[in-house]
Design goal:
The complex is a heterodimer. Chain A is mainly alpha-helical. Chain A has one domain. In chain A, 48% of the residues lie in helices and 0% in strands. Chain B has helices spanning 7-16, 30-43, 50-56, 63-69, 74-88, 140-143, 162-168, 194-197, 260-264, 275-280, 322-343, 350-353, 361-370, 425-430, 434-445, 472-482, 519-522, 542-558, 560-575, 584-596, 601-609, 612-615; strands at 104-112, 115-121, 145-146, 154-155, 169-172, 219-222, 231-233, 269-271, 294-295, 301-306, 316-320, 357-359, 409-411, 504-505, 523-524, 533-535. Chain B is built from 22 helices and 16 strands. The radius of gyration of chain B is 30 Å and the shape is flat. Chain B is an alpha+beta fold. Chain B is 33% helix and 10% strand. The chains are: A mainly alpha, B alpha+beta. The interface between A and B is large, with 56 and 52 residues.
Chain lengths: 225, 626
C-alpha cells in the first residue's frame, strides 16, 4: 500500500517532469565515417584439381625410370612379370586415340587407377634394384637419392629420405604436407618391413621403400595438378 | 609465386619476421609449389625434377622469367598442338593406306632359274604384250602360277629360264635399299650405319633379305615398271567393254580397256606422275630407283602405332608396308606444321591460311612423285588428265631422300591452292566428305556446332538442304561452308580446276541417270536442269566453290568468332574446365588483346598462365589429401 506522503511525492515528481524544459540534442560537427576495409573477393570459378595429362605422366614416368626410351623401360620392367607391354596400359591411362576418334579422358576410373598402380609397382621395384641394390652414386639415382642408414630406421631418419621421394613425385617438400603425413608413411614403412622380415629378393627395408615409392606414385597429388 | 608478390607484401613480411628471419624472402608456400608444378606440366610437359624444385627455392628465382623462358620450346609447342589435335584428331584410321595401283609395287614369288625369286610389279601396268598387259609380267603358262594382286600365287610353280627372266625383268637398286639410288651405280646400301645417319629411320629385316635369307642387294622388277622417263605416249589396244567380251586365251583376266580419253588422245604425251599416265601408257614406269612407287610388301617399314610422345619415341612399333607408313607421315606433317606455328609464335591464322607446310623424306617423295596418282579417274572423260595439284611437285626440294624421316624442311609455299591444314592429305582423308570438313572446321575454329532445331522431319523430295524442312536450320550454314571444298575431291586431294570443271556444264544436262562418263561423279543429277548440271557440292554457294579452301580459310579467320574461339580452346585446355558466363569479360579481354597482338599464341598463353584463374584454379578443395 502506498502511503499518503509517498503519493504526494510521486505527484510532485510527475509535476516536475511534466513542466521541465524539453531535452535538446545539441548539434555537433559531423564526424567522418569509419574507414572501410577493402577485400578482394575471389570470384573466379573453381573446380576440383585436374588430372595430369597422360602425356605428362608418361614423360615423368620415363624420367623417373632414368630417362630411358619407352621400349627400353618395357624391356627392363617386364622381368618377373612386373609389366606387360605398353599397349596394355596406354589406353587405360586416358590417352586419346585420334585414329579411331577416341577422346581424351578427363576423369579417372578404376581401371586407370589400377593401371597407375601397376606402373608404380614396376617402377619402384626396379628403382630399388637400381638405386639401392646396385648402389650407384647418389647423383646417379633417379628415385632413391639417399643413403640407407644402418640398423633400424627411426622416424627422424625416415623423414628426410621420405622428403626426397615426396619432392620427386608430389613436387613439394613433405614439410608442407599435412602434419602427420611423414608419420603415417613411416608407419607404413615399418609395417611393410615387418611383413617381409622373412626374407625375399629384397631386404625388408628395401621392400618397404618400394612400397613407400609405390604409394606416392599413386597418391592423388601425383596424379592431379 | 613469391617473387611476383607485390613489394609491399614482401616488405610487410620482412617487418613482421625481422626478429626471426634474416632473409626477407619468404619460403615458397604450398600454393607456390603447386603453381610451379602446374606450369611445369603445361610448359615442360612433365612434373618438375628435384633440381628444378631446388631452383624454385633459390632467392633469385623469378617465376615470370621462368615462364618467359619456356614459352616457345618443343614441350610448349606440343602442349598447344595437343589442344588442336584433340579437336581435329588428325590421324588417319588404321585402315587408311595409300595403296593406289599406280604407286603400289606388289611382288610375286616365282621359281627362278636358281631358286625362288620375288618379282616386283604394278597391278594394272600397261605392257605392249597383250598376254600380260595390265597384269604380272609372266603368264601362267610361263611360271605355272597365277600371280594375283592380293594373296599368294596360286598353282604349281615351275622354273623360268634365265633368258625369259632377263627379257621380262631388270635388276634395280631401289630407293629403300640404297641411299644413293639416283646414282648410276648405287653402292650405299642400307646397313647398321643408317640408324645414325638417318635418325628415326627404322626399317625391318624382311625388306633386306631375299626369300633364301641372303642379303638383298638388288630386286627384280618387271621391265616396264623400271622405266624412268617422266612422260609416256598414250596407246590404245581396241579393248572396250562390250557384252560379248571374253577373256583372251593365255590370260586369266580381262585386259585393260581403252578409256574415252585414251581413244581421243592416242599418241599424245602424258605425265607419268598422273594416274592417267599409268593407265594409258606402257612407257610409264616407277622412275629412278623406283622412287615413283612404294613396295606393297614385305612389311619392312616401322610404323609407330602407339606413340603418344611422338613417332620418335614409340611405345609400340610394328612392321608395315610403305602404304601404311605414308599415312603415318601425313599425320606427322600436320603435327610438325602445328609445332612450327606455335614454337615460332607465328600468326595463328596460319593454321588455316598458310600456303606453307613442313615435310620430311617420305612426304617429299609423296608430294614429288606419288600424290598425282589419284588423278584423274573418270575426270579424264571431262578432259582432266594431269593434276593441278594442291602441293606442286616442283616446290619439293629435290635433295630430300625418301628415307630421311627425321629431317623436316619448311616449305614456304605449296602453290596457289594450298591453305594451311585444310589442304593436307591427313585432313582431306580424315574428313572425306566436304560437309565433314566444314563441320569440323566450324567446331574447332569458330566454336560453333550444328544443332538441329526441334522440327518434325517430314518426307521431302527437296534436294536443297538449305530449304528442306528439318535440315535447313543446320544446312543453311553448313552447305555454303562445304561448298568451299567442292573443288577438292572427297576423301582425296585431287583439285578440280574450273577449266575442266565449270560450275555449270551443258554436257551433263538432264536428270536421266545414264549420262556421259564422268558426269555423275562430278556433277550432281539432283541439281541438273534440261540445259545444264551443277558441280557437286557447289549448289549452295557457287562462288565459294571457286574460292576453294583458301577462301574458306579467309572467311573463318576474318570471322569475329575466330579469336574468341582460339581463346576459349586454349583457356579451357589450360584451366582444365569449360569457361562459364563468369569468364565472359575475361575471355573478351583476352580475345581483344590476342587480336591486337597479331594473333600470337605466346602472349595469350602467358596471360592465361599468370591469371588468377590459372593460379588458383583448383582450390575448391583446400584440404590436402593425406
Amino acid at each position: 500500500m502506498i502511503g499518503e506522503a509517498a503519493l504526494v511525492g510521486l505527484v510532485g515528481l510527475v509535476g516536475l517532469g511534466g513542466c521541465g524544459r524539453p531535452d535538446v540534442v545539441e548539434p555537433s560537427a559531423p564526424a567522418p565515417l569509419p574507414a572501410h576495409h577493402a577485400f578482394t573477393l575471389d570470384a573466379t570459378p573453381k573446380q576440383h584439381r585436374r588430372m595430369v595429362p597422360p602425356e605428362a605422366f608418361l614423360r615423368a614416368y620415363l624420367q623417373w625410370f632414368g630417362g630411358l626410351a619407352p621400349l627400353e623401360v618395357q624391356r627392363r620392367a617386364k622381368v618377373d612379370g612386373l609389366f606387360d607391354t605398353w599397349k596394355d596400359y596406354l589406353a587405360a591411362l586416358g590417352l586419346p586415340d585420334y585414329q579411331v576418334d577416341t577422346p581424351r579422358m578427363t576423369e579417372s576410373n578404376t581401371i586407370m587407377l589400377a593401371t597407375l598402380g601397376r606402373l608404380a609397382e614396376a617402377l619402384c621395384v626396379r628403382a630399388v634394384e637400381h638405386d639401392l641394390v646396385a648402389h650407384p652414386p647418389i647423383d646417379q639415382r633417379a628415385i632413391f637419392a639417399f643413403d640407407e642408414p644402418d640398423g633400424d630406421l627411426t622416424l627422424a631418419a625416415f623423414t628426410p629420405r621420405f622428403d626426397v621421394l615426396h619432392r620427386t613425385f608430389l613436387s613439394y617438400p613433405a614439410a608442407l604436407a599435412p602434419a602427420d603425413r611423414a608419420a603415417r608413411f613411416y608407419a607404413l614403412f615399418r609395417e611393410v618391413a615387418s611383413h617381409h622380415a622373412g626374407g625375399g629378393a629384397l631386404t625388408p627395408a628395401r621392400t618397404a621403400w618400394a612400397a613407400i615409392c609405390t604409394a606416392l606414385v599413386q597418391h592423388p597429388e601425383t596424379e592431379l595438378y | 609465386m613469391r617473387r611476383s608478390l607485390p613489394t609491399w607484401i614482401v616488405a610487410l613480411s620482412a617487418l613482421v619476421a625481422r626478429d626471426v628471419v634474416s632473409d626477407p624472402t619468404p619460403t615458397p608456400t604450398l600454393p607456390d609449389y603447386r603453381y610451379f608444378r602446374a606450369l611445369s606440366v603445361d610448359l615442360l610437359g612433365r612434373v618438375p625434377t628435384r633440381d628444378e624444385l631446388a631452383a624454385l627455392e633459390r632467392p633469385d628465382f623469378r617465376v615470370d622469367a621462368w615462364i618467359d623462358a619456356h614459352l616457345g620450346g618443343a614441350a610448349y609447342a606440343e602442349r598447344l598442338r595437343r589442344i588442336y589435335m584433340d579437336l581435329l584428331r588428325l590421324e588417319s584410321s588404321p585402315t587408311t593406306h595409300y595403296d593406289r595401283p599406280a604407286v603400289s609395287l606388289r611382288h610375286g614369288l616365282i621359281e627362278g632359274p636358281h631358286g625362288k625369286l620375288d618379282v616386283y610389279y604394278r597391278n594394272g601396268q600397261r605392257r605392249t604384250d597383250p598376254l600380260i598387259d595390265g597384269t604380272f609380267c609372266f603368264t601362267i603358262a610361263e611360271t605355272g602360277l597365277k600371280v594375283v594382286p592380293d594373296g599368294a600365287p596360286q598353282g604349281q610353280a615351275r622354273p623360268i629360264t634365265q633368258q625369259l627372266l632377263d627379257a621380262r625383268t631388270v635388276e634395280i637398286k631401289p630407293w629403300w635399299l640404297y641411299a644413293d639410288y639416283r646414282e648410276r651405280a648405287p653402292h650405299d646400301r642400307a646397313g647398321p650405319d643408317w640408324t645414325a645417319r638417318y635418325p628415326g629411320l627404322d626399317l625391318f629385316l624382311p625388306l633386306f633379305v631375299d626369300p633364301d635369307q641372303t642379303p638383298t642387294t638388288t630386286i627384280r622388277v618387271c621391265r616396264e615398271e623400271a622405266q624412268q622417263t617422266p612422260n609416256g605416249r598414250i596407246v590404245v589396244t581396241g579393248q572396250v567393254p562390250r557384252a560379248d567380251l571374253v577373256i583372251p586365251p593365255g590370260r586369266w583376266s580381262y585386259p585393260p580397256f581403252d578409256s574415252t580419253y585414251a581413244q581421243a588422245h592416242v599418241g599424245e604425251v602424258i605425265s607419268c606422275l598422273s594416274g592417267t599416265g599409268f593407265q594409258s601408257s606402257p612407257e610409264c614406269g616407277c622412275g629412278v630407283g623406283l622412287e615413283r612407287c612404294i613396295p606393297n610388301g614385305p612389311a619392312g617399314f616401322s610404323l609407330a602405332v602407339k606413340a603418344p610422345l611422338g613417332v620418335d619415341t614409340p611405345f609400340l612399333a610394328i612392321p608395315r608396308t610403305a602404304s601404311s607408313w605414308l599415312a603415318q607421315w601425313w599425320a606427322e606433317e600436320a603435327k610438325h606444321f602445328l609445332d612450327d606455328i606455335f614454337a615460332s609464335d607465328r600468326d595463328v591464322r596460319d593454321l588455316l591460311t598458310s600456303p606453307g607446310t613442313m615435310i620430311n623424306g617420305p612426304l617429299a617423295q609423296f608430294y614429288r612423285a606419288l600424290a598425282g596418282a589419284t588423278c584423274c579417274g573418270t575426270g579424264t572423260e571431262l578432259g582432266y588428265a594431269e593434276p593441278e595439284p594442291l602441293f606442286e611437285p616442283d616446290r619439293v626440294p629435290a635433295e630430300i631422300l625418301p628415307i630421311e624421316t627425321a629431317r623436316w624442311t619448311a616449305i614456304p609455299d605449296r602453290g596457289p591452292h594450298a591453305a594451311g591444314l585444310l589442304t593436307m592429305p591427313v585432313f582431306l582423308m580424315k574428313y572425306g566428305p566436304r560437309r565433314a570438313r566444314a563441320h569440323v572446321l566450324s567446331t574447332a575454329f569458330l566454336c560453333k556446332d550444328f544443332v538441329a532445331e526441334a522440327a518434325a522431319l517430314t518426307p521431302s523430295t527437296e534436294p536443297d538442304l538449305t530449304r528442306r524442312p528439318g535440315c535447313a536450320s543446320c544446312h543453311t550454314t553448313l552447305e555454303p561452308m562445304a561448298a568451299y571444298f567442292a573443288r577438292v575431291t572427297e576423301a582425296d586431294w585431287t583439285y578440280l580446276p574450273p577449266r575442266q570443271f565449270p560450275l555449270s556444264i551443258a554436257r551433263c544436262a538432264g536428270t536421266y541417270p545414264k549420262k556421259p562418263p564422268g558426269c555423275n561423279a562430278y556433277y550432281d543429277p539432283a541439281f541438273a536442269t534440261a540445259t545444264s548440271s551443277s558441280l557437286r557440292g557447289a549448289y549452295a554457294a557457287p562462288a565459294h566453290a571457286d574460292a576453294g579452301p583458301v577462301g574458306l580459310a579467309e572467311e573463318i579467320t576474318r570471322a569475329p568468332e575466330f579469336a574468341a574461339c582460339v581463346v576459349q580452346n586454349v583457356a579451357q585446355s589450360l584451366l582444365g574446365r569449360s569457361l562459364t558466363p563468369a569468364d565472359d569479360r575475361w575471355k573478351i579481354d583476352l580475345a581483344q588483346r590476342f587480336v591486337d597482338g597479331g594473333y600470337r599464341m605466346r602472349a595469350l598463353v602467358r596471360a592465361i598462365l599468370t591469371s588468377p584463374r590459372y593460379r588458383d584454379v583448383n582450390d575448391r578443395k583446400p584440404a590436402v589429401p593425406r
